[in-house]
């Protein structure tokens, strides 16, 4: 008897992945639209996709981490210390109305409404590596524009040497803040030249969508050459200062979390190695790249510095 | 219904079967989660955490058997102790193998560096290794070969395993110490009870050893 052979599926019959996923998206949107009819405007925004997104030259030749993992595996202690907690608990965060106060060493301090920020500059999709201090990493398509766009508008004075980012402090919306695991509000900081670097992204979305709450909605920064905790989420205040700000993680462990916290395979965390990382979805670990692979762009910012001392 | 102090072999056998099945539950749950792809974005981390958590939990449960027997008078509890201890070793082995195979994939260089340089592994590794002789000498034949006194002395190493395990957990946590603190408090409690009983039996021994002194008092 001749064995039965399954004929090869002609490639013309295979649904292109883009179409396959767009069908999924359409169904999600349909679901979203019917829900939206029942919900107030602010919640409807959570299903919103951005319309005009500029493609950016900032990309990496690596596979994207699936949307599911990017939005279900998060460190966001404001919603609990487990990786699953933010996705579970962040529903209580209200992202409208939302304002971001920009103040300090600037000529034109201003309170920006989130809608104004969204229209300030064309949104770009940038695919960045994201390296957590815990030695895992992702590749994420973020949406936003360079933080420099915002900072330029408030005209920093000559004394502006640092930029401090302050996240929302409201234990009712952020139940994790009822625990003193970190000093609230969450504070992060950059040197002004780091903040003005074109790679530093003021971020409002990912995967073409409005930023999910658990990823730091409605507005956060992404500093791709630094460990993830440097990229403050749910920002309500940006303060330009003359003195270096003391960040929440520096207070939590001064010998473990430095002000710079640049991704550096040669400088270990006080308790674990940073030489390798596990890309989410991979089995074998990969070597961690200097400045997370952005050495060409940002290396010169640290010329002459002892990165073991200024970690 | 009151729980009797002594049980016949059949009842103990029944309880042992029940405890055995319950003790397998964490493993079954983990296996099922792996099967339906629900271990989350970082499955290796999940398996490491879960097996580590249950190693410590079973170590503490094992250490509860003796004090609980004393407090309650249920002598049959001691007959569960070996199985509980072996489950601690079983989950510990899973934890170690996860690290060796899934996490490091036999990267001996990295493993050696970890043991030397990472305090939580420096402490965790020997805590596991110390469990091996305890598991090997857990059989009746081995108890007979060693003799009760030497066997008991050897098996006091379990205290070091438990302390090492808690320190290992404490040192690896990034910030939220809730779980390690809970384990540490429970362990301290178990040691505290032992100290109290140890002190009491020492006093008793003194009394029986020096009858003249006690009669004079």
Pick out its properties:
heterodimer; A: 311 residues; alpha+beta; Sulfite Oxidase, Chain A, domain 2; 8-stranded mixed sheet; 5-stranded mixed sheet; 21% helix; 22% strand; globular; B: 217 residues; mainly alpha; disordered C terminus
How does this model look, in words?
The complex is a heterodimer of chains A (311) and B (217). Chain A has nine helices and 13 strands. Chain A is α+β, with helices and mostly antiparallel strands. Chain A has one domain (53-302): Oxidoreductase, molybdopterin-binding domain (Sulfite Oxidase, Chain A, domain 2, Alpha-Beta Complex), CATH 3.90.420. In chain A, a hairpin with a 5-residue loop joins strand 2 and strand 3. The longest helix of chain A has 20 residues, at 17-36. The radius of gyration of chain A is 21 Å and the shape is globular. With 217 residues, chain B is mostly helical. Chain B has one domain (9-200). Helix content of chain B is 81%, strand content 0%. In chain B, helix 2 packs across helix 9 (157-172), helix 2 packs parallel to helix 10 and helix 4 crosses helix 5 (119-129). Chain B is globular, with a radius of gyration of 20 Å. The N and C termini of chain B lie far apart (44 Å). At the A-B interface, helix 3 of A face helix 4 of B.
């Amino acid at each position: 008897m001749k064995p039965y052979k399954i004929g090869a599926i002609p490639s013309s019959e295979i649904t292109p992945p883009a179409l396959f996923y767009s069908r999924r998206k359409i169904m999600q949107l349909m679901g979203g639209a019917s829900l939206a009819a029942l919900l107030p405007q602010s919640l409807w925004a959570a299903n919103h996709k951005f319309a005009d997104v500029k493609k950016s030259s900032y990309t990496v030749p690596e596979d994207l981490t699936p949307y599911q993992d990017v939005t279900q595996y998060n460190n966001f202690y404001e919603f609990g210390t487990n990786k699953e907690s933010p996705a579970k608990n962040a529903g209580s965060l209200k992202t409208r109305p939302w304002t971001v106060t920009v103040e300090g060493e600037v000529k034109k301090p201003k309170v920006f409404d989130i809608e104004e920020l969204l229209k300030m500059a064309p949104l770009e999709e940038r695919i960045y590596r994201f390296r957590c201090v815990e030695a895992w990493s992702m590749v994420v398509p973020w949406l936003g524009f360079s933080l420099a766009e915002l900072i330029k508008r408030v005209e920093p004075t000559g004394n502006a040497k640092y930029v401090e980012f302050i996240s929302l402090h409201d234990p009712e919306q952020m139940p994790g803040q009822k625990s003193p695991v970190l000093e609230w509000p969450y504070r992060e900081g950059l040197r002004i030249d780091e903040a003005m670097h074109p790679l530093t992204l003021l971020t409002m979305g990912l995967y073409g969508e409005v930023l999910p709450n658990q990823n730091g909605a409605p507005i956060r920064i992404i500093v791709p050459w630094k460990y993830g905790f440097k990229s403050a989420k749910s920002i309500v205040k940006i303060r330009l200062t003359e003195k270096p700000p003391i960040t929440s993680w520096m207070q939590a462990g001064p010998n473990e979390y430095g002000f710079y916290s640049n991704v550096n395979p040669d400088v270990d965390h006080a308790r674990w190695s940073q030489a390798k990382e596990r890309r989410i979805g991979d089995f074998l670990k990969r070597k961690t790249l200097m400045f997370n692979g952005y050495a060409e762009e940002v290396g010169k910012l640290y010329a002459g510095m002892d990165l073991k001392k200024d970690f | 219904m009151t729980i009797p102090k002594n049980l016949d072999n059949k009842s103990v056998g029944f309880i042992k079967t029940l405890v055995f099945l319950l003790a397998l539950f964490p493993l079954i749950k983990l296996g099922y989660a792996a099967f339906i792809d629900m271990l989350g974005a970082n499955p290796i981390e999940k398996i490491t955490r879960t097996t580590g958590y249950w190693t410590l939990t079973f170590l503490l449960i094992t250490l509860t058997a003796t004090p609980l027997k004393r407090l309650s008078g249920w002598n049959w509890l001691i007959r569960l102790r070996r199985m509980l201890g072996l489950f601690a070793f079983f989950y510990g082995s899973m934890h170690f193998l996860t690290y060796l195979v899934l996490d490091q994939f036999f990267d001996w260089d990295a493993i050696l560096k970890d043991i030397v340089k990472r305090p939580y592994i420096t402490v965790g590794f020997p805590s596991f290794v110390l469990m091996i002789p305890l598991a090997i000498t857990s059989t009746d034949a081995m108890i007979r070969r060693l003799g009760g006194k030497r066997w008991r002395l050897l098996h006091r190493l379990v205290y070091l395993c438990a302390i090492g395990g808690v320190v290992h957990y404490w040192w690896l946590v990034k910030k939220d110490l809730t779980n390690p603190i809970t384990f540490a408090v429970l362990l301290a409690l178990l040691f505290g009870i032992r100290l109290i009983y140890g002190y009491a039996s020492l006093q008793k021994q003194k009394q029986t050893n020096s009858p003249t002194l006690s009669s004079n008092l």
